User: Which sequence fits this backbone?
């Protein structure tokens, strides 16, 4: 039979995808399942972006492009970094790939030697640790719980750094916690980074535009230019512009790293999709005002979900600064028994109970490296959210 390569021996199919598959199978059987697991906006791609893609097809932009992004798109990205983040990346300090996920993959593939360590605060986006492992690295997971605001602290970072540390990987606003780092949160971490010049910094700013209550987004290289020579600032169009299916992510970083990443990409995908690149140019250069409207709509739903969760005995949810997830504590329901006599010992048990009995699909904290919590994606209709929260409330009330 088939024997998988050792590099993927410890890596299974993502829990999130497994739960999604089960929930969809239940739906096909006719059960009224509400899925709060998806990591994508429920909005449509803006019309100006779609039109730009159609025009690109009609112009014949249907061939291979430059390896790591067309010059026009790189120019648009450089413009974005300067305009929105105050970072001056030259065009040869920018790379484009089929999603931020491929950016991360290219970067780790291009930089990690076997045994190199990558510091990742938990809870983390599941792909981080899996990509690091596939690339031969060792994820060093640092728990950052609700009491810490789901943010890494300087002393934790200091303690985690070893001679083998290659990268610190940060994500703000975070999937799954929604926590974001303010300038004041970043400063002590930056100080530690400056004391350890062998450590590089990768920041995933994917949810930059989805922040609430006037939170001021910032990114480490904008705060401390001395980090620019050993930082990769990762971003993309998937979440802000509702373009998950177009598969365009990008990053700014030192030329040598960008070149090494292109070597990986050249043997993986040759270039990002030409039509999607034209669309991404329109997204970055086009009108941005719809972002505010969409964020206001997300904020309304965030307030609804957080309010309802905190009214349920046993659950405890911090108010997230951004993204479209809540990461609620569920310590208060552990040790209880379901009406059918099952014990809830873990957050995974709790999520299985919610799916089986309440027909609501959410993802356990264990999938993100921190328990006991569960993630709700509220990028779905208010009607579905209200119904799902009614069901979660009833399901929790039925626990003994
Ligand atoms: N980074 C974070 C934190 C994410 O949550 C996601 C998607 O879920 C990505 C990156 C990947 O985005 P892309 O669609 O650009 O690959």
Assistant:
């Amino acid at each position: 039979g088939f024997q998988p390569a050792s590099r993927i021996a410890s890596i299974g199919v993502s829990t999130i995808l497994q739960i999604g598959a089960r929930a969809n199978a239940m739906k096909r059987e006719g059960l009224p399942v509400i899925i709060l697991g998806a990591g994508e906006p429920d909005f449509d791609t803006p019309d100006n972006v779609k039109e730009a893609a159609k025009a690109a097809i009609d112009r014949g932009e249907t061939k291979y492009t430059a390896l790591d992004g067309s010059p026009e798109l790189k120019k648009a990205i450089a413009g974005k970094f300067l305009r929105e983040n105050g970072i001056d990346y030259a065009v040869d300090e920018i790379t484009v790939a089929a999603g931020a996920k491929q950016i991360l993959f290219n970067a780790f593939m291009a930089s990690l030697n076997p045994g190199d360590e990558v510091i990742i605060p938990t809870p983390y986006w599941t792909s981080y640790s899996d990509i690091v492992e596939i690339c031969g690295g060792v994820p060093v997971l640092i728990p950052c719980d609700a009491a810490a605001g789901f943010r890494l602290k300087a002393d934790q970072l200091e303690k985690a750094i070893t001679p083998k540390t290659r990268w610190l990987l940060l994500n703000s606003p975070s999937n799954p916690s929604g926590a974001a780092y303010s300038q004041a949160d970043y400063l002590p971490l930056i100080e530690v980074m400056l004391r350890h010049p062998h450590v590089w910094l990768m920041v995933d700013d994917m949810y930059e535009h989805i922040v609430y209550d006037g939170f001021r987004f910032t990114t480490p290289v904008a705060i401390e230019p001395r980090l620019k020579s050993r930082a990769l600032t990762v971003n993309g169009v998937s979440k802000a512009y509702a373009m998950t299916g177009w598969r365009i992510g990008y990053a700014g970083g030192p030329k040598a790293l960008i070149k090494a990443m292109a070597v990986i990409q050249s043997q993986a995908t040759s270039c990002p999709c030409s039509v999607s690149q034209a669309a991404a140019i329109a997204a970055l250069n086009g009108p941005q005002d719809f972002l505010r409207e969409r964020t206001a709509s997300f904020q309304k739903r965030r307030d609804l979900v957080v309010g309802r969760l905190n009214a349920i005995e046993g659950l405890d949810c911090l108010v997230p600064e951004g993204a479209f997830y809540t990461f609620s504590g569920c310590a208060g329901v552990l040790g209880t028994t379901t009406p059918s006599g099952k014990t809830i010992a873990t957050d995974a048990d709790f999520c299985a109970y919610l799916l089986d009995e309440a027909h609501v699909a959410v993802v356990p904290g264990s999938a993100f490296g921190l328990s006991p919590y569960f993630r709700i994606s509220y990028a779905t209709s208010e009607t579905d959210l209200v119904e799902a929260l009614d069901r979660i409330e009833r399901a929790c009330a039925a626990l003994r």
Notes: The longest helix spans residues 289-310. The mean pLDDT is 96.
